[in-house]
Amino acid sequence: MTKNVSSVITPGKVYQYVDTGEPMRGGMKDVYFSPDKSYVVAFYRDEQDAVSKERLRKIVTQYYDSFFNREGGDYYKDLYCWPTDMVEEGRKTGIVVPAYHSNFFFKKGYATSDLIKGKEKEGKWFASPKFRNKQFALRLDESELGNWLSYFQVCLNISRGVKRLHSAGLAHSDLSYKNVLVDPVSKSAAIIDIDGLVVPGLFPPDVIGTADFIAPEVLATKHLHVKDLNRVLPSRVTDLHALAVMIYMYLLYRHPLKGGKVHHLEPEKDDLLSMGKKAMFIEHPTDATNRPNISQLNPKELPWADVTRIPYSVTGPYLKALFDQAFVTGLHDPAQRPPAEMWEQAILKTTDLMQPCSNTACDQKWYVFDNTSRPRCPFCGTAHKGTLPVLDLYYQFKPAVWRPENHRLMVYNNQYLFQWHVNRNVVRNEKLTAEQKVPVGYFTFYQGKWVLVNQKLDSLKDLTNDAEVPLGAMVEITDGKRLLLSKEEGGRVVLITMANK
Questions:
Q1: What angle do CA 359, 319, 143 make, to 5 degrees?
Q2: Which of 68, 311, 385, 404 is most open to solvent, judged by the fewest CB atoms within 10 Å of its CB?
Q3: DSSP 223
């Protein structure tokens, strides 16, 4: 049966939804598709009070406008599934939400079964090692999995989505892999369940979060009354804990706090302590008491569950430092947790360290250069073949004084060079223009030599040989060579080191 329901925001505006008597049931809402399935109408099962209704009103008007009806707003429409209107039917309150993009539904699902074909790609499917283990009957089809580099882009999108929420003074309050849709094939992610946004001092949280992603301080105080001043509720800093957990799980397919340490004989109380008051990073650099017990690990979760086999250091130095900040110094000190923008920049710098694995059978396909003279893929053990150019970026601190930027670019065949590598004043974020996304050069292995082909650099210069490199020309990449990428303000110099010689 097709029913009509009226907008609360725009008088006279009507939405249609199909009521078959058996709606999809979410945690708090009953969900109905529109006849053309372009949107859903989701009714809250519980009657909403005045504060909740005002929150929804602001989400679909004021907050929607500030996010999307401005320059660059279209970029963020892909990062969220944001409610567009509020409706009422009798005493029931609902929201209108665009249907998810088609890429967020499984095309095949399991490799040996169509059981989840057509279902939503909640992030949980991609954060568990068993669903990618070839010995597990219900593993995901390889066509759904993407490669390791895909998950860096997924994490980048989530970080940018959280960054934008926090910059607007909002908190999601229930970030988890259930409330993030993921598609590793298109390298995309979308944050959902936006209707529970928290505004400090105005709109309190409706929930404390989803198990595995609730911040320790929230769990440790959940027994207190909600109005007790010592009770900790979801906020921006609890979002940051959940964000760190998600990034760790998407890159390493294990939970950062679920180790071998037992705090209580009752499983429920043990779980509360191990994720709350007694929470400890399973890869704590100085305390190994919560390392996973190898003998107790599920074989379907190996090798990822074995932190000695695949340690978190495989994610590279920038992310390792942030994991330490999130799960060591910031685990029980929320003010120390890395903000979303730091995750964004660390992920971007890490992708500049990535190398394709030369083993075509490697499941991950990519790995992060480990700064050794003889690099190898940590996942399949395949050694890198041939020389490996390492480009360290320098900026001009003052005339004739150049300083390292703690940023390097690893070269592989047919890799592009972009403006954000060339000039430090071009920031690689969501505000990049179309022109700034166009490559300015590329690296290739040509006639037994590494070269950089100049496509758009007007002032590329080989400083070692004091020679200009004109447009369309190439310059050889050799050990110890220095290149001026741009003489404009913010232009960089690179110093080349050849690894794996």
A1: 40
A2: 385
A3: T
C-alpha closest to that of 219 among 171, 260, 268: 268
Beta carbons within 8 Å of 228's beta carbon, 6+ residues apart: 221
List the one residue out of 232, 234, 247 whose CA is nearest residue 208: 234
Is 333 buried (19+), middle (13-18) or exposed (0-12) by CB count in 10 A? exposed
Q: Is 249 helix (H, G, I), strand (E, B) or coil?
A: helix
Answer for the pair 366, 149: CB distance below 8 angstroms, yes or no: yes
pLDDT, residue 399, reads 85
Structure tokens at 151: 């998950």
Place of tokens 């809402």: 29
On whether the CB atoms of residues 211 and 178 are closer than 8 A, the answer is: no
Q: What percent of the chain has pLDDT over 70?
A: 100
The first and second tokens of residue 467, run together, are: 């020679």
Query: How far are the Cα atoms of 265, 406, 452, 469, 482 from residue 402, in angstroms, in the given order?
Result: 59, 13, 22, 21, 12
Asked if residue 421 lies in contact with residue 487, where contact means CB atoms within 8 angstroms, the answer is no
DSSP E strands, 19-84: 24-25, 29-33, 39-44
Q: What is the pairing mode between strands 188-191 and 354-356?
A: unpaired
Per-residue confidence (pLDDT) for residue 24, from 0 to 100: 84
What is the phi/psi pair of residue 131, to 5°?
-80, -5
Backbone angles phi, psi at 408, to 5 degrees: -135, 160
Residue 234's identity, in one-letter code, is P
Scanning the structure block, which residue is given the tokens 């209704």? 53
Phi/psi of residue 164, each to 5°? Answer: -65, -40
Tokens of residue 232, six digits: 């900790």
